[in-house]
């Protein structure tokens, strides 16, 4: 029996984010973002690396788009830097910033590459953090909608796929619980309050989009790591359910159902950390016009948990984990994270689990009944540039091949998957791990001795992916 093929218009693509590739952090009228400031605090990032230059995509986007065309990409997901459009977050529009993305979008379209635009990928204007504490103030809702509307009005004639907030769970947990992203707070009450405001901003932007007749689809992208129980002991199964509710359903349910899961809400109330929800909030969040058209899924790995009666703390696992620093973590009374002996790990100790992607697609599809756009998936690894400028990343090919098989299996299961934009197209800045952690199909030479010019070299995986795209997922290589 033959497997169902990938849909004819499946969006085979790749992805990036403004801060991780653009550089030119003070050019083109750009304002400063919270990341431009945060990376300057000693000890926050690997060897103090920052995105001041990144891979200089701002000046080399034409070269990058040419490479995308060479790979045969059908789609490219990138984010817009809010600070290029509104240097202060609100107020006057910066025409130069608008023009940069206008040119990029036109160049993509000229090469028949579908632009998938992320509106917010973590680089909040510093001015809004200073003015009213960013996500902690409801004033951000109007500013975010105004920014999103500016993008819809300027690019909506050409952009058909919009991602509102990227990995809200990650930027909230790292920013307000683990203090590893700006604004570097450790306060769960403030985190859940800020997160609720982000939910209102997300819902308002989606509602605006739906009410004003723009053509296309819009939804958030979420870093979903499905959770397994360590074994069949009922207490561990319950712990896995706790983790799934707290880590994932708490965040995603709000997008689609407009309410938080009872169990988590109750758990928060007992500790006095539940966000305040007004009658108006409820009406907005439950309005179907504020619900997404698809769920964006960033899938890297699964988690495994056991019951937690020893009170192991730390609110969440550090998902940008630095090599060798994974420590015991969990949520007291709910679950603790444990090792999964069935899974191998990446150079950064992330679990490698292609079947987990099929499971993620099933869970999202059955819980939310929405099509899924896989907005990220990929392998962060150390790569070696050979003397002849080749990069033999067979480990990445293997990783991606197994994940493409899992997507194919999900499609064969009857699930609706719109596309796959791998992380990432070129190598780029890892927020906390510098430039040594490489994800791209295209190697960027940042070695000061050999290449100050940030030369681009396609890796073996580049040619492999080209083949996959050309055959619409039929030819996955050996
Ligand atoms: C890293 C991370 C990022 C994220 C991406 C999330 O190493 O910094 O892997 O690259 O995956 O920005 O959307």
From TrEMBL:
Keywords: Glycosidase, Hydrolase. One of its GO terms (molecular function) is hydrolase activity, acting on glycosyl bonds. InterPro entries: GH (IPR017853), GH_1_N_CS (IPR033132), Glyco_hydro_1 (IPR001360), Glyco_hydro_1_AS (IPR018120). It is an enzyme of class 3 (hydrolase). Gene3D superfamilies: Glycosidases. It comes from the Bacteria. PROSITE patterns: GLYCOSYL_HYDROL_F1_1, GLYCOSYL_HYDROL_F1_2. The active site is at residue 376. Its EC number is 3.2.1.-. Belongs to the glycosyl hydrolase 1 family. This is Glycoside hydrolase family 1 protein. It comes from Lapidilactobacillus gannanensis. The lineage of its organism: Bacteria, Bacillati, Bacillota, Bacilli, Lactobacillales.
């Amino acid at each position: 029996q033959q497997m169902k093929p990938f849909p004819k218009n499946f969006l085979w693509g790749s992805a990036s984010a403004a801060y991780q590739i653009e550089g030119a952090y003070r050019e083109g009228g750009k304002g400063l973002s919270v990341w431009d400031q945060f990376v300057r605090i000693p000890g926050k990032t690997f060897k103090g690396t920052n995105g001041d230059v990144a891979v200089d995509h701002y000046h080399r986007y034409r070269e990058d788009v040419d490479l995308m065309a060479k790979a045969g990409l059908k789609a490219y997901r990138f984010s817009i830097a809010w600070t290029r459009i509104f240097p202060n977050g609100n107020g006057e529009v910066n025409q130069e910033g608008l023009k940069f993305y206008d040119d990029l979008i036109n160049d993509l379209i000229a090469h028949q590459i579908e632009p998938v635009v992320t509106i917010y990928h973590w680089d909040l204007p510093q001015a809004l953090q200073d003015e009213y504490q960013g996500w902690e103030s409801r004033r951000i809702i109007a500013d975010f909608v105004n920014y999103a509307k500016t993008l819809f009005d300027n690019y909506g004639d050409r952009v058909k796929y919009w991602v509102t907030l990227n990995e809200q769970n990650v930027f909230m947990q790292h920013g307000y619980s683990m203090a590893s992203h700006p604004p570097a707070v450790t306060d769960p009450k403030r985190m859940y309050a800020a997160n609720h405001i982000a939910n209102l901003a997300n819902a308002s932007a989606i509602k605006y989009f739906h009410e004003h007749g723009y053509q296309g689809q819009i939804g958030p992208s979420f870093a979903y790591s499905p959770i397994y129980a360590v074994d069949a002991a009922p207490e561990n199964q319950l712990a896995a359910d706790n983790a799934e509710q707290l880590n994932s359903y708490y965040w995603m349910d709000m997008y689609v159902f407009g309410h938080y899961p009872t169990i988590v809400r109750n758990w928060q109330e007992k500790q006095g950390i539940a966000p305040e929800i007004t009658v108006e909030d409820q009406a907005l969040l439950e309005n179907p016009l504020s619900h997404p058209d698809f769920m964006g899924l960033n899938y890297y790995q699964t988690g495994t948990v056991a019951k937690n009666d020893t009170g192991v703390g730390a609110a969440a696992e550090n998902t940008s984990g630095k090599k060798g620093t994974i420590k015991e973590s969990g949520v007291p009374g709910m679950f603790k994270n444990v090792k999964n002996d069935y899974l191998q790990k990446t150079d950064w100790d992330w679990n490698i689990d292609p079947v987990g992607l099929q499971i993620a697609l099933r869970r999202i599809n059955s819980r939310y009944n929405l099509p899924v756009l896989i907005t990220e998936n990929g392998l962060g690894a150390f790569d070696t540039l050979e003397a002849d400028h080749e990069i033999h990343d067979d480990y990445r090919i293997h990783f991606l091949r197994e994940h493409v098989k899992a997507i194919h299996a999900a499609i064969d299961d009857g699930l609706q998957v719109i596309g796959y934009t791998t992380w990432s197209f070129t190598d780029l800045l890892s927020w906390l791990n510098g430039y040594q952690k490489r994800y791209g199909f295209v190697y960027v030479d940042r070695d000061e001795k050999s290449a100050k010019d940030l030369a681009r070299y396609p890796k073996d995986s580049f040619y492999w992916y080209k083949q996959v795209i050309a055959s619409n997922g039929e030819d996955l290589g050996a």
